Amino acid sequence: MSLHRLQTTLTLPITIDKAWEFFSDPANLALITPPEMDFKILTPLFKKETYAGQIIAYDVTPLPMMRTKWVTEITHVSKPAFFVDEQRVGPYQIWHHQHHFEEVNGQLLMTDIVHYQIPLGFIGDLMNQLFIRKRIEKIFEYRTKKLNELFIKGKLKLIQHQIE
């Protein structure tokens, strides 16, 4: 079983405070998740802002015909610089997602670092090579497109997006 890593960066024309307000509100995740994933938050959200120890349950379709429950815990928070969510129940053996925010020249530089492991040993690694990694990359590409629509609003400038 391999531990896989995906890193994306993007630049948005917003302040770090505006970014924190948007990205630390779990309800906004549905806005930037591809519609085919039919993403639904199951947990009542008592606080609008993410906090360490927060448990959030979702109902989601990560792959076609694979409906599943996904439970994450927010394990680390350093407002407004970063937060980390880790899967507790869901389709991955390991899912550790770091969200980093930095203001650079009046714009937001956002970096996501995801470490993940697929169950099923070498079969899971093969599934990752064939389609799972591509699916995760498409989710981040969709998110970039939606953030472009939300924060740039009609400007021709595209946000920088890089997947490593």
Can you put this structure into words, describing what you see?
With 164 residues, this protein is of the alpha+beta class. 24% of the residues lie in helices and 40% in strands. It contains 2 helices and 8 strands, in the order βαββββββαβ. The chain has helices at 16-23, 121-152; strands at 4-12, 40-41, 55-63, 66-78, 82-89, 94-104, 107-117, 161-163. Strands 2-3-4-5-6-7-1-8 form an 8-stranded antiparallel β-sheet. The two termini are 20 Å apart.
Q: Find the structural class using helix and strand composition.
A: alpha+beta
SSE pattern, N- to C-terminal = EHEEEEEEHE
> Describe the biggest sheet?
8 strands, antiparallel
Q: Residue ranges: pLDDT <50 for 5 or more in a row? A: 154-164
Radius of gyration: 16 Å
- How many helix segments? 2
* Span of the ends, CA to CA: 20 Å
Give the strand tally: 8
Tell me the strand order in the biggest sheet.
2-3-4-5-6-7-1-8
Average pLDDT, to the nearest integer? Answer: 89
Shape type: globular
The percentage of residues in β strands lies in 35-45%
Question: Helicity level, as a percent range?
Answer: 10-25%
